[in-house]
Every structure is written in C-alpha cells, then in structure tokens.
Specification:
Strand order of the largest sheet: 9-8-10-11-12-13
Structural class: alpha/beta
Order of helices and strands: EEEEHEEEHHHHEEHEHEHEE
Oligomer: single chain
Length: 274
C-alpha cells in the first residue's frame, strides 16, 4: 500500500536562524479509474477518469465516484473493485478497475468524465455544461430543525479523528455523523471531492443509511460537493468554509439542509433547517 504521507528534507527559516530539517507532506498521486462492463463473454474496458488523490481507500473512492456521478445507482451493481496488477511498475498501485455487473447497461452519455481531474476541482474538464449536472432522482428526506448545539460540536470531533492532518496540516476531510452527532465514518484526501467520494463509498460498502446521516467537510461547500450529497441522499451538509451561490441554489432546490462557516460557536444556515 502506498503511504499517505511522505518525509522530505527542507531548510527552515525561523526568527533569523537557518537550519536543515525534515517535514511530512501529504502524498498526492494520480489514480486512474477503469471500468469493466458488458456480458461475461465479452467484457469491455473504459478508461473512465484520472484523479489526483491521496493513496488509501482507493476502492471506496472508485465506488463513491461511480455512485455520485450517476454511473451506478446502488453498490450491488459493482461486482468488485481492485487495483490492476498488469501495469507498468511506475503505475502499480495507481490504477484501479471497477467491474460492473453484466446487467448494468452503461450509457456513454452518463459518463462524460474521461479526463484529468485535479485535487482542487471535481468538475474541471467535463465535456459540456449539461455533464456537470448529474442526474438525480433520489428524494431527500428533510432533516428538520437544526440542533445548533449539536452541529457546533462536529468540527472538533472531526479534527480529533484526522490522523493525516495532524501530521501534515495539508489535507481535507469528510466525516459522516449520525443524528446524535456521533462520528460514523471519516476519510481524508488532498482533494475535497475525493474525501467525499471515499466516505460515501465506505458508507455504501457498509450499507449505512445515508438518509439518516449528516456530512461535514473541512473546506468550502462548492457545487460539486453539494451535488454529491444530493445524489447520495444525505439530508444535511455542513462546511467549515463558505458555500457558493450555485451550491446554495442546488441545496434549496433539492431540499438539502446546508450550513457554512461552521467555526467556533457560530454558523450560517443557507438552506433548510429553519
């Protein structure tokens, strides 16, 4: 397994002094996601996407990606996800293939993401504006009134569980909590959208009821993250940072409760929950 952190020699400048030192950096490497589909006696392979991610939980990332992009509707449609062994040595551990069940009819219109995805943007390079808007027929069950005291306590619980952030200070997190505010799942990644895909993929694997969970992200609430919540049927999303105008519009249209600037003892409610 590839490490999620990497040591590096540096030069430290501190109060007028200069001396050599060592630092730990979060690992960022490309992951190529391939898709196997078709009848058992005539399988086809699609090179679906390349995303810059932090190694670890790659199978969950692939599963969450397929689900939040609308390529599959349920985890059972993915037979298995595993790293490819027959690749170049420098690609080993960085190429993964998801096998779709033969009954899944892969519609090319639904996967217009055959491109490079940076760790900072989940939609860069899609082939059309229409492709940005994933098809979502899932109904979100209203979260209802927001418990302000419970919501305010989530960031500290998430931060306490962020092991890679503790060592590097340079990684995003996505955390699922139950209605009582207890941590259910947490995943870290250099990319915000990857962290969300990982935690959703892990929840699908464990058959967790996403419709009864709330999601907290460590950065801003951009459109692509809100969209992933809507597709997954998660009723409440909170972010440490700010939302965008399109994210708020989508949240309001979909019935998602959206909170932003969740810091200290305050937050802003942008959609639902009143």
């Amino acid at each position: 397994m590839r490490a999620s952190v990497a040591p590096i020699l540096i030069t430290r400048f501190d109060a007028g002094t200069v001396h050599p030192g060592e630092d730990l950096l979060v690992t960022e490497e490309p992951l190529e996601i391939r898709l196997g589909h078709g009848p058992m006696d005539g399988r086809h392979e699609v090179q679906l996407s390349v995303t810059m991610r932090t190694p670890g939980h790659d199978d969950e990332l692939a599963l969450g990606f397929l689900f939040t992009e609308g390529i599959v509707d349920q985890a059972a449609q993915v037979v298995r996800v595993e790293h490819c062994a027959n690749v170049k040595e420098e690609e080993r551990g960085n190429v993964i293939r998801a096998e779709l069940h033969p009954s899944v009819d892969l519609d090319p219109v639904r996967w217009q993401r055959h491109f490079y995805t940076s760790s900072s943007c989940g939609v860069c390079g899609k082939s059309s504006i229409e492709a940005v808007h994933a098809q979502c027929t899932r109904t979100i069950t209203s979260w209802g009134p927001v418990d302000a005291a419970a919501l305010i306590g989530l960031p500290d619980r998430m931060r306490a569980a962020q092991t890679v952030f503790r060592h590097t200070g340079g990684i995003h997190a996505a955390a699922l909590f139950d209605r009582g505010g207890e941590l259910v799942l947490l995943r870290e990644d250099v990319g915000r959208h990857n962290a969300v895909d990982k935690v959703i993929g892990a929840a699908l694997r464990a058959s967790l009821p996403l419709g009864r969970c709330q999601l907290l992200v460590s950065g801003r609430a951009g459109f692509e993250l809100v969209q992933k919540c809507v597709v997954a049927g998660i009723p409440l999303m909170a972010a440490v940072g700010a939302p965008s105008s399109l994210a708020v519009q989508l949240a309001r249209d979909a019935g998602l409760t959206l909170a932003g600037f969740l810091r200290g003892d305050r937050f802003n409610l942008y959609a639902g929950g009143a």
